[in-house]
Each structure stands twice: as structure tokens, then as C-alpha cells.
Amino acid sequence: MAIIPPTYQATLRPLTLITRRRELPFAGEILVRAGQRVEPEDVIGRTLIPARGQRFRVARALGIDPAELGRSLVLADGSELQVGDVVVETRRGRPRVWRAPIAGTLSTVEVDRGYLVIFPPPELLEVRAHFKGFVVSVEPYRAAVIQTPAALVQGVFGLGGVRHGVMRVAVTDPADELTPETMDERLAFCILIAGAGVSAEVLARAVELQVRGIIVGSIAEEALRSFLGYGDVSGWQVGAVDWAFPPDGAQRSFPLTLIVTEGFGHHPMCRRTFELLASHDGAEVAVDGRTCLHGPGLQRPEVVIPLPRANVVSEPEESLLPGTEVRLLSHTMLGRVGKIVDLPRAARPLLCGARARVAEVELEDGSLVEVPVENLEILEAGGPEETN
Amino acid sequence: METELDIRAVLIADCGMEHTRVTLVDVVETDTYRMVAQEEVPTTVEPPLSDVTIAVREAIAALERTTGRSLLQDGQLRIPQSRDGQGVDAFVATCSAAGSMPVLILAVTEDISAQSARRAVEMLYAVPFRTVSTEQVLREDPLTGGAGTDAWWRNLERLTGGCLLLVGGADGGNVNPARVLARALAEALPPQPARLEQEAAEMGLRVLYAGNRRAREIVKEELGNRVALHFAENVRPRLREEHLLSAHEALSHLYQDLRLHRMAGYEGLRAWSHVPVQLPYMGLQLAARFLAAHHQRQVLALDVGSGATVAVQAHGERCARVVLGHFGLGYGIGRLFAERANRIGRWLPFPISEGDVNDWLLNLALRPRAKPDTLPGLLLQQAAAREAVAAVRERLAEQMPDSYEIVVGSGGGIVRAPRLAQAALILLDGLQPSGVNPTGIVDLYLDRSCLLPSLGALAMVQPDAAACVLLQDGLYHLGPCIVPLGRGKEGALALRLEMEFVNGMRREVEVRWGEVIAIPPYWGNEVHLTVQPARGVSAGTGRRGERLTTRDGDRIRCGVLGLIVDARGRPLSLSQDAAARRKTLRQWLEQFEAYTREEMDSLPRALSSQEAEPSGEE
């Protein structure tokens, strides 16, 4: 009986049925109904994000007793404030006033302790569809589920949220690297296929040009560290709090979405991935860079390329078998793909001297290598995949 | 319900972050409990399978194939064992697959109460991921060094599977610092938006207060019903007094509630197990205490796993434990890398740029299950293992001196080394044992089947079985190690050894400074040993130049590697010059027969890029 560990999931699906949940972070209003057709720009739902209240130590600022603050208020709890509005006026001795330093709503919940709280106005948040499809179900006040036939490419990690745009091939070969000199204003609002790697300069240039997303084979740790603004490697506490990647990714907003398909270092993009992406040059795609490496929220970054309606045939359970196309995951083999020719049952010695269960893999150049099964990932599948 | 005497065959499942290992223990012909078979499969706690018991079933099915016994029937365990030996009498489980709990420490001072809080957190699978002091709060740059007031909110939102530990102040002392902290926390709490009720309940922040008892009411008053507040005894009731037990127990309860019980498939595992699901570090502690009592010696047990690194030192009634949650060689490589990246590269005997080391380690963080399949990859992983061991050694040294006499290495990070000499060298390099103990010898053992962490659960249903398995199947004796102390010029004589074997044959060996060697047991495993240190050199608790001998006592048992002598000096000094350091490392690895000369010659000889190499500085 073959076991199917999570890493054995296919990362490339040329034709599949994509189901994605577009969710509001807080309860709000869902603006679509089941069965409705949606375009990438369509707003699925909206909600108000309440701002955090700011506390002001007013009694101390005015030099009065906290108990006196309540009596000195000139506006009632819940009043709408503009900057400069007089909120407190002392009545004893020389009159002194306290004016609102920010706009918002007044709260007197802590007036007895000498504090006033002002809640700034809430922000409007809108969630868009990001790809063309049909709404298959709606969860009132919270989410809508959209479905479309599509090609799907999953990366190993990324950053940035869901964005959509026209995909452009920016290099001619998966082993080529994108340089700042080859980038110009024509790439604005596009999703770029950037080949083997990008530098911190390329990322900065992309932000400047308002590029919406970059799909790349690899990136050097130093380049990404510089882009993320980490002073040193101590920022890479991967998984110490949650399994978001980068470690503070869930708390930050990024000016573009980056999807890395192979990993860190200097590795070409897997040729099959590059070819699949390049075959859809000019298509409107959605990219999602959010990454969770482990746990119930496991999520890989992805590129969704909606396709015209087609019959998607479900495939059997994915498993490593002779004939399966795989990508190689060990650091020195990143970007390489091959086909399993044999799966010996007994453990075999590796180059490093350790013994492990291996698969014999025929690489694209015809050479045969023995690779531990843990270092393999199924490359391609075509069946419907689970909602996330 | 069966009694202990009825329990003969037991299945032990150890569900780790990366692998699930199931071991069958049974009574064999000699009427003793022995390990019969063991199988290991990848853990299935995360999507798409999301059920830890799937891997347990898979491993049991594999056991059925290897032993020919029927252990499952219709997907359920066959209990009790039948007369023809099918099925088992009990099933027990240990589990670390739930990962580590992040803990944010809010402390009155960074140096005293915060250190105690960190020690309390490092007694279980938890990560003290950030410490904030009153001073920082008053400077109004909490948590992210001035990244804005919303930084508080964002960090607290990340704590969904973790908790907040509030400490500070001696019992009966000034309550104001605790008030400041509690108020700062209250200010940082997110506003109550239009969350659905159920969701709001799930988001409830857990806060454990283990500070000044007098300030409890104030903390309650400041935080009100906005958080789930728990109380424990003060971790620092007086300036020079530390009480960690109560806080540790409270944190353990929070861990069970927030992590273990919420793990995918926990209920299934719990339903199968005869006793509550145990945590592996408890098993390691039990094994260390048992060995210390059995051998009447000080024991250090280490478990370098994929997600956590654990060390337990036991001496008589005394016992110290350090658990570095999320600090390991697979799922825990992120924290290991972030804390010790600049030290890992210095253990590599081939030229490699700092950038390449960083890229390699981060790729492992992205794919923690990937195995090293090349020699440089294996050396990098073993370099990381040395640093994991060194880190846990430093933490443990805060609690107990390194006067241990037995070292037991467990966990994939150590036992998966393809050669025993490699595992021994990881222990020697990481721990740098001084051998300053009554016997002057440190015995190295390897727990090759990674059984030690599971023995706690086994002992709960059948203590005899745990003891038998530990003594007969659990440990692999690598060898006794002698460490000459002092300083000498490289190549100068450090000590002279005389080995007298059972058959009367003698052998003399001279060991020089800078060498680490394993002397094979030429004519038998037991020897009388005479150590004559060079002038100015000592061994064990002996004086400088003092001759030590075992002639008047018991013979020394050599291990599978023989007798180990580590004459590299303490602390180990690695040259800052990269080429010189690589040469020394190569010499050690070849001399100790951890790697062959051919293997060393096959390593890269030049940097692939112009980047800087890692420095040898500590």
C-alpha cells in the first residue's frame, strides 16, 4: 500500500477545476449570488475594518484629577470628532481645553481612570473575484466560492496577496535571469515570468513600475532578505509562531506578489512549468503569494490561468509509480524534472553513504539518477483539486 | 481490565513532526521484554490527509508485513493478543506532531523575571518568540521596535495557537510594574469588531500570569474579561529564588488545550491508547533518570529531532530539562538557522559561501522532509546538528554543571548519521564534554531506534517492559571517551594510554594535541586502563600530570568504536582562517574515521561564487 505524504501532491495542472473561496476577514456584505458569472475586477463582498482605538491620558495632560475628567467633558460618549474639536474644558481655576488630535468617535469607557479613547473611522475593505468564473455557493455575510476551469501552477513559497493581471514572458529561457535594464513601463500592472532568478534591484524596479506579480524559479536569500528589510538572518524564524512564509508575511502587505517555483539559491525554473506559463502569455491570470508551510492552513502560492469551459476529467489518487513525472527537490537538483523508471522496495545507499528508499529517475537529458522518495514531488496531474 | 501482568505485547506509536514510528514490544523466549520490530512512515498530520492516525495505521500495516502477525482487524487494533500470538495487549502513544506553542513573554525586567520565564517556557514544546519588558513598553516601542502601535495588535493576532506569559516582581513587592504591563496589554488588545460569536470565542487570547502574587487582582482588573486569564505561582518569588514548576504546569495545560487536543486526528489516537497520549520529552526524562539510578552515574540524554531539540541531565534526585521547541533539523530548521546561521558554516570542511549555506538551510525550511543525498548536503546537515547540540548544551549549563558521565544521543539528527563515528563526532563537537567527573570518562551511547522518548508511555502500562527494552535494545554503546585538559602545542604529547586486555595482552598508545581518535578494542571489549597525562595536563578530576588507573577496580568496557580520546582541547578552537579551519576539520573527520579520505577528496575544492566564506568565530 503506497502512502501519499503531502509533498507528493502535483504542482502543475494544465487543466483542472479550480474552486476558491473569497472570504471577508470580518463579517460583512456579500454582493454576489450563487450561479452568477464574475469577472476578475468584480467585488465579491465588502466590510468595514474597525480601527484600533487610541487612548489619550487627558487628565494628566490637563493636570486634573481623573475623577474630574468626566465632569469636564463637553461632548458626549459616541460623538463624532474632527481634528481640533474641543472635547474637554476644565471649569476650576484657569480654564484649559483639550482638543481632539485625530478624527473619529469618542469613547468615555475609561474616563474614570483619566483616559479618553478615540476610535478612528473604520476602513472599507473590498474583496474581488480576481479570476473569471462562476459563483458556486455563498456563505452569508462571510464568503463566496468561485469556480473555473483553469491551468494551475503552484510554487514553493511566495509573498503578497491575491492579485490579477496580464501575464507576460519577460525572459526567453527558464535559465535566464531578469535584469532591471530590460524592464520598462510596458510591464506596468502585468504578471511577469522571470526565469531563473531575480535580484533585489529587479524587485525594487518592479515595484517602481507597478508590476503586480513576478513568477520566478529561485531567489537568493540575501536578495529576498534585502527586499523584506530584514537586518540579518534572525528574521527567518520560519514557523516559530505560525507557518506563514515569510515569517512575518501574514502581518505585512507587499506592493507586489512574488511566486518562487523552485526555492532559494540560483536554480532555473523547471522547464515544464516555464513552458506551461509561457503558453498562456498574454492571458489574464490570478496570482496568490500567500504561503503556509505546515499545519491545517497549509497553503502553497499559486498561479491560476482561467481557461474556456472544458470537460475536466477527474484523475485517480496521486501516488509515486513507475512512469510518474516528478520534480527533484534536493538543493543541488532544484529545477530538474524526470520520470520514475523503477521504485525498488529495499533501501539503497546514496552518494553520501546513507541508505534510503529511492526511486530511479530518468532525467530530461536521458541520464539515470537514484533519488530518495522524500526528495520527489509529483509534477503534473489533471483532476479537480480541493477547495482552499 | 487487564492487569500489568497480563500485558505482554505492546505497540508503541511515536508521532513526530516528520515521521511516525511504531514499535512492537513483546515477551520473547527468555521471558524478557524485547523490541521485536519497528516501522517508520511519514506523519500525516497536515492536509490533504489531516489525520495523525493514518500514518499510525500505515506503520502498523508495515509491521504486520515484516512480522507476519495480524495486528489490525477491520481497521481496528486486535486487542488482546490471542494464543497464537496475533494482536497485542496494549497500545500507547507519544506525540510531538502538534508542534510547538509560541509564547510571548511580558516581563517587568529583561534580565531577571524574563530569564526565569524563558526557562519555564523551555521546559516544554514552546517557543519564547519575543520578550517585552516594562522598559520597552514605557518607551512606547513595544514588540517590533517602533513599527507603530498596530504592531502590538498584529503580534497578538498571531498568537492564535499560543499564549502570553506575564511575569515580574517579587511576591509582596511593588505592584506598579505589573500594572503597567497589564495596562499595556489591555491597550494592545484588538477592538471587538463584528466577529461572529463562535469565532470570537476561538480567538480568545490566553494569558498566564506568574508574577507578584499581590498584583493578581490588579491584573484581573486591568484585563477584565477581555482575555482568558490563568494564574500560576510567581516564577521569581524572591530575587534569588526561582520556582518554575507551577508556571510549567500551567503552560503544559495550555499546550494540551491549544496544540495537542486540536491536532488533526488526536481523538482517534487518544481512543486507541491505553493511557493518555504522552509527550516525548517526558519519556526522555524518565529514561535519563532510570539510567542515572541504574548506573549510579550522571546522565545526559539528548534528542535532536526534526521539530525540537531536547536535553535532560539527571543526577540522583536532581534533574534538569531543556526543550528547544521549533529548533531542529527539519521542521525546526527555521529557528536554528535564524539563531545560529553564522556558526553552522564553520563546521564545513569544504569551501562554500555564506550565501550558499543560507540558501541550503532555507530550502530545508521550505521542504523539511527532504533528505540530504550528496556528501556536501550531509555535511551541512551534520553541521546544523552540531549547532543544535551546542545550543541545548549552553541552555542546560545554566541549570547544571557539565559533569555528566554518560551521554545518550537520540533523534533523527544524530542517529541517522550513516556511520557511528559521525554520530559520535556530532556529540563530541556539539557538547565538548570536559570529562571532569569522578570517573574521568564520558561514555557515549546512541539510541539507534529512537526508543527513549517512547519509553515514558510504555512505562505507564508495563514498567518492566520499559526497563528491559531500555537496557537491552535501546542503547548502542559507542565507547568511553577520555578528554585530556590543558593546552599544548599541536602535535605535542597530550597523554599516554596503556590498555591491558583480559587475555593479558597490553597495548600502549600515545595521543597528541589536536587529535581525536577511536582506539579499536584489539583483544576484547573489556580493558584495564592506565592514563598518564603529559606534564601540565589533567584527565577527569585528577591533578595535572596525575596518573590514573583502573587496575584496582572494574575493567572499562569499550564500545563499538573502541576507546575514544579527544585531545583537541577545551573549548574547541576553530581557526578564523577558512583554509586552515577546513584543513583541521578534514583532519578530524578522517582521523576519527567519520569519513574516508576518498570522500573528503570528492568534496568541492573552490567556491562557486565570489561570496565570503563563513567565519570561524563563535
Attribute tags:
heterodimer; A: 388 residues; mainly beta; Glucose Oxidase, domain 1; OB fold (Dihydrolipoamide Acetyltransferase, E2P); SH3 type barrels; 3 domains; 11-stranded mixed β-sheet; 5-stranded antiparallel β-sheet; 5 helices; 29 strands; 10% helix; disordered N terminus; disordered C terminus; B: 618 residues; alpha/beta; Nucleotidyltransferase, domain 5; Rossmann fold; 4 domains; 8-stranded mixed β-sheet; 5-stranded parallel β-sheet; 19 helices; 33% helix; globular
Blueprint (SSEs and pairs):
The complex is a heterodimer of chains A (388) and B (618).
Chain A: E1 12-23, E2 29-30, E3 37-38, E4 43-49, E5 54-56, H1 58-62, H2 66-72, E6 80-81, E7 86-89, E8 97-99, E9 104-107, E10 116-119, E11 123-128, E12 133-139, E13 143-154, E14 157-159, E15 162-169, E16 190-193, H3 200-208, E17 213-219, H4 221-228, E18 244-245, E19 257-264, H5 271-278, E20 284-288, E21 291-292, E22 302-306, E23 325-328, E24 337-342, E25 348-349, E26 355-356, E27 358-363, E28 368-372, E29 376-378
Parallel strand pairs in A: 15-16, 16-17, 17-19
Antiparallel strand pairs in A: 1-13, 2-4, 3-12, 4-11, 5-10, 6-9, 7-8, 9-10, 12-13, 13-22, 14-19, 15-20, 18-21, 20-22, 23-24, 23-29, 24-27, 25-26, 27-28
Helix pairs in contact in A: 3-4
Chain B: E1 10-15, E2 19-27, E3 33-42, H1 52-67, E4 72-73, E5 76-77, E6 90-95, E7 101-107, H2 113-121, E8 126-133, H3 134-138, H4 150-157, E9 163-167, H5 176-188, H6 197-203, E10 206-209, H7 216-223, E11 228-231, H8 245-260, H9 266-272, H10 280-295, E12 299-304, E13 308-315, E14 318-325, H11 333-344, H12 354-366, H13 375-397, E15 406-410, H14 412-415, H15 420-431, E16 442-446, H16 455-461, H17 463-474, E17 476-482, E18 484-485, E19 493-501, E20 506-512, E21 515-519, E22 526-533, E23 538-539, E24 548-549, E25 556-557, E26 563-567, H18 578-591, H19 597-601
Parallel strand pairs in B: 1-6, 7-8, 7-9, 9-10, 10-11, 12-15, 15-16, 17-26
Antiparallel strand pairs in B: 1-2, 2-3, 4-5, 12-13, 13-14, 16-17, 18-23, 19-20, 19-22, 21-26, 22-24, 22-25
